[in-house]
Amino acid sequence: MGRTILVAGVSRYLGGRFARLLSSQPTVSRVIGVDVVPPPHDIGGAEFVRADIRNPVIAKVIARADVDTVVHMNVIATPTGAGGRVSMKEINVIGTMQLLAACQKAPGVRRLVVKSTAGVYGSSPRDPALFTEETGAKVLPHTGWGKDSVEVEGYVRGFCRRRPDVDVVQLRFANIVGPGMRSALTEYFALPVLPTVLGYDPRFQLVHEDDSLEALRLATVGDATGVINVAGGGVLTLSQAARLLGRPVLPVPGPATGALGQVLRRFHLVDFTGEQLRFLSYGRVLDLGRMHAVLGFTPRYTTREAFADFARGRRLAGPLSAEVVEAAERRALAGVGRVLSMIGGTP
Fold first, then answer.
1. Of 181, 87, 77, which is closest to residue 120 (Cα–Cα)?
2. Domains assigned to the chain
3. For residue 135, which of 30, 38, 111, 326 sits 20 to 30 Å off, Cα-Cα?
4. Which residues, in sequence order, are CB contacts of 85 under 8 Å at separation 6+?
């Protein structure tokens, strides 16, 4: 008899792709995808059940299907996609609490996989060169997805103490990119001119969407446990990424970045939070030793290759025409000028 796996967040892009991937695995007999709305994409042989993980009814879904493995992919990164920050917080934190409570009550659950984020490490000038899984954040994220993910991981640790018989693995992913991914970072790189923080050129890592799915597959059907960083090999700097795209950069003084983020959100260009703006100042690089040794995984794409494939898939690679760049620069400079005037600066 094969595994019965529940995937939470199946109506989102990666969740749907992952449910489809799992349904083709020979060791898996049944995949149940849950979400509040039907998936807009093909989920293969997976079954869809309309359920809200914030509601205790999720416990009935797990019990009736005799689920033995739960994959939690329903932590949302941007407020806009969730209908606002309040809804995002409810889905991420309250939803996780209810899902873990349901798992705790289900004696048949033997494995829990949580899709987490390297955002739990935060970004600050005091950061180490490499974050290992044991390294704590020098400055804890205090807003947005990073803060929610810190709380989610806290609840997962509590679950581990209450159910030591359940194998738990948390994958802390670097920013996921790819032709089909839409996130604050991918939409930032789609801008015709990239606003940067004056005086900073952060290092960062990426993981390709295909590699993220393979890491999740290994965590789900394998025997790895614990917290594991996941990223493509190598690093990029923001200036290197801009050159690969052929995009000009617009350095913005640090005091104006918060207001600039508000302008970008107001015009629905990029849904940037304060944590993401700090990432564009200080970056973040992960130690990948446990990914290789414990998960037994080497990504197919390096960070640079993942970025290049994302750029090709979105048709972003290559220099823009001079007219497009000049027009974008004029709009950006005008916007920055208005932001600086709002905070008492000078353009």
1. 77
2. 3-175+208-232+286-301 (3.40.50.720)
3. 111
4. 79, 144
121, 127 contact by CB (below 8 A): yes
What residues form DSSP beta bridges with 236?
204
Give rounded-to-5 percent helix, strand, coil for the chain: 45, 20, 40
Residue 24 DSSP SS3:
coil
List the one residue out of 78, 9, 83, 263 whose CA is nearest residue 18. 9
pLDDT bracket for residue 91 (50, 70, 90): confident
Mean pLDDT of 203-232: 98
* Phi, psi torsion values for 335, nearest 5 degrees: -65, -45
* pLDDT(304) > 80: yes
Of 137, 280, 302, nearest to 206 by C-alpha is 302
Do 90 and 52 contact (CB within 8 A), yes or no? no
Q: β-strand 236-237 against 203-204: which pairing, if any?
A: antiparallel
Taking each helix axis as running N to C, give the angle between helix 322-342 and helix 257-266, from 0 to 180 degrees, rounded to the nearest 10: 120
Q: 207 — phi, psi (to 5°)? A: -130, 135
Query: In the block, which residue shows the tokens 């194998």?
Result: 167
Backbone angles phi and psi of 147, in degrees to 5: -65, -45
Closest Cα partner for 243 from 322, 321, 326, 319?
319
Do 22 and 10 touch, CB atoms closer than 8 A? Answer: no
The alpha carbon of residue 19 and the mean position of all alpha carbons in its chain are separated, in whole angstroms, by 17
CA distance 128 to 115: 23
Q: Give the integer Cα–Cα distance in Å for 17 and 209.
A: 10
Q: How many CB atoms lie within 10 A of CB 242?
A: 18
